[in-house]
Amino acid sequence: MNHRYPLGSKEPSKKRFKLVCASNRELSQLSIMLASDFMDRINRLIVIVPPLRECREDLPEYWKAVWRAEVSLEMFENKPPFSEELTDYFQHSPLNGNFRDLVRLVSHIEIFYGKYKNWEEAIKASFEELAYYEILSDKKPGNGLFKYAESADKMQKRFNFLLAQWAVKEYGGKKEASEAIDKTVDCINKWLRIEV
User: Fold this and answer.
1) Most buried by CB count within 10 Å: which residue of 69, 114, 127, 143?
2) Which domain covers residue 186, as residue numbers?
3) What is the mean predicted confidence (pLDDT) over 1-29?
4) Are residues 180 and 106 in the same domain?
């Protein structure tokens, strides 16, 4: 039994509860970050769950479960789409967000299906859109925009190319993109010619 003081009360109240904690940090890191007495109180049972990228053979089943749980339109509920692109994603994506990556993918596919009314097109458009998120959120050297042991100049060129590509798509043309990101059309053309 634990005692707590409800807000505004001077009398303690007894409540039973079970505390479940989760972290993506190693236990050795947590023991440094958290007060030792707190760590002792919360680590009665430790379950280590491997990341999705270490359970790739199970990804098709997880995909079905996430699809059924997250899709908002009932007509799609029991029909999770599959394609070569999805299979490739399951086999090669770093899946840094674990299940959040699958949930995000469901949302994008559902939205793009509304636009294209075709699974293949919806999946393709989803991956194009998610590529930007992966580049921005990926913090590991060697993945995404920045590569380990690569010159800053090369990384800057890759960033400029992706920025120009995104801006032209987002704003509907080079002229509109140049105004939006405050660069000349010549500059955007130059960035788009760079081989990345």
Assistant:
1) 127
2) 152-193
3) 80
4) no
What DSSP string runs through the chain? Answer: -EEE--TT-SS-EEE--------SS-HHHHHHHS-HHHHHHH-SS------GGG-GGGHHHHHHHHHHHH--SGGGTT-----HHHHHHHHH---TTTHHHHHHHHHHHHHHHHHHS-HHHHHHHHHHHHHHHHHHH--STTSTT--TT--HHHHHHHHHHHHHHHHHHHHTSHHHHHHHHT--HHHHHHHHHS--
More confident residue, 30 or 139: 30
Quick one: pLDDT band at residue 143, thresholds 50, 70, 90?
A: very low
Q: Do 60 and 132 fall into the same domain?
A: yes
Higher pLDDT, 152 or 147: 152
DSSP SS3 for 14: strand
57 shares its domain with 125: yes
Residue 71 and residue 29 share a domain: no
- Judge whether 146 lies within some domain: no
Count of structural domains, the chain? 3
Same domain, 76 and 130: yes
Tell me, yes or no, whether 142 lies in a domain: no
